[in-house]
Structures are given as structure tokens and as C-alpha cells.
Amino acid sequence: MRANLRKIVSKRKIVSKGHLAVILSQLREFELPKVNLEQYVIDPEIAADVLWKAYLLGDVEKKEIADLGAGPGSFGIGALVLGCSKVFFVEKDTEAMEIAKINVSNMKSEGLIDGKRANFRLIDVREFKERVNTVFQNPPFGVKERGADRKFLEKAAEKAKVIYSLHKSETEGFVTRLMRTKGFNLTHKWAYNFALKATLKYHIRRIKRIKVSCLRFALIE
Predict the structure, then answer these.
(1) I need a surface site. Which of 2, 38, 133, 196 has the fewest CB within 10 A?
(2) Could you tell me the CA-to-CA distances from 213 to 26, 97, 205, 217 in Å, in that order?
(3) Measured in Å, how far apart are the chain's first and last C-alpha atoms?
(4) CATH number of the domain enclosing 135
(5) How far is CA 1 from the centre of its chain?
């Protein structure tokens, strides 16, 4: 399928959301997901839908982007395909960062992205210093580490005026109230059935689906 990927993009303009999902489906995933980091890979179709909505809202093209807790880099790579000016892949796990770098390299070799626009930061999200236009993040749900999602939200609020963040739908009220204290309004929300694949040894079911919402926050100005 990789041989046909170049046909999807012409002059770095994406043809459709479906084509973006095809590109993202080619990315390598976690080889050995870490339980304590809640390393779940976002479904390519969900990532493509979020990115496409952001693109239509003017939050991607020619914008500087941060993919916080980047993992394999789906959001950041999708943003590059859609013509952003720069992406920071922020990830503290060395193995995950290596996978993201491989994915960027593969997409670059296919002529789908400009690899020079990719910037890698092997750091804890709290150490990220650059300011950007838009943040995309699929943070831990806070199951293994209480408050893990909060530090992502707080960092995003420091560094961008627009934030796209994925959370369990049941926590939407808490997240919205927290972001309000940071000066952000909830402008859009989209619901998804998030598939958690049985990648961890204690999983019993092959796929477990949970209700997740992507929340778009914008700074009140």
C-alpha cells in the first residue's frame, strides 16, 4: 500500500479525511506498550477525524503545532501532511520517541511530509518550553497515575491558544471546569468509541471500547 501513498497527496494538499486515515494507518505502533504510561494507540480514523476538523477550523495549515505525549506521532504526522509549518513531538518514553522518528522518516521518504518541520523533544511534558498555535494530545486517562491528564492540560494551556484533547467522556465536566480556570472556553466536542486493543498482558478481551470525547478549547480573548 505504501507505493500508492504518494498519489494521495498533491502539492501537500490532502484529498480527503479518508485518505488521511489511510496514511495514518501505515504508521508503526507501540511494540511493547507500558502499563504505567497508559500507552494506547489512537485509531487512525479517529486521529484523522480530529485532524480534519481542526484543519477545517483553520487550526492546522501554516500553524505551529505541539503533539504532547506524542507516542508514535499520529497527530503530529497528520498535521505535517495537512501543511502545518512546524511540529514538536513531545514524548518522555525513549522507545516511543524512536517509533515516532521512524514514522516521520518513512513518511518523509514517501514524499508525504517535510521532515525538516519535525522537531523532537525527549522530555516530560512539564519541561516543554516552546509556544505554539495549536496543541493536540491524547493524554493518559489518569487510571494508573492520578492527575496524569491534568499536567497535560495545564501545559497545553500555557503554550497554545487552541487545544484539542482526548478524554474519557465521563470526565468532560472536570476537564472543562479546569480549563475554564485557565482562561479557556470549550468551543467544540466530538464523541468517539475508542478501541483499546489487548496489547497489555492483563487484558482479557481482544478489544474493549470506551466512550471518549475530543474537546476543543480556545483561549478567551
Answers:
(1) 2
(2) 24, 25, 22, 12
(3) 45
(4) 3.40.50.150
(5) 23
Residue 11, burial from CB neighbour count under 10 angstroms (0-12, 13-18, 19+): exposed
Give residues with Cβ within 8 angstroms of 47, minimum separation 6: 21, 24, 74, 75, 78
CA torsion through residues 68, 70, 74, 78, sign: positive
Work out how many domains the chain is built from and give that number.
1
Residue type, 19: H
Residue 57 sits in which domain range? Answer: 2-219
pLDDT by 10s per residue, the chain, length 221: 444 555 555 545 556 899 999 999 999 986 665 455 455 778 899 999 999 999 999 999 999 999 999 999 999 999 999 999 999 999 999 999 999 999 999 999 999 999 999 999 999 999 999 999 999 999 886 555 566 789 999 999 999 999 999 999 999 999 999 999 999 999 999 999 877 655 545 444 556 678 999 999 999 98
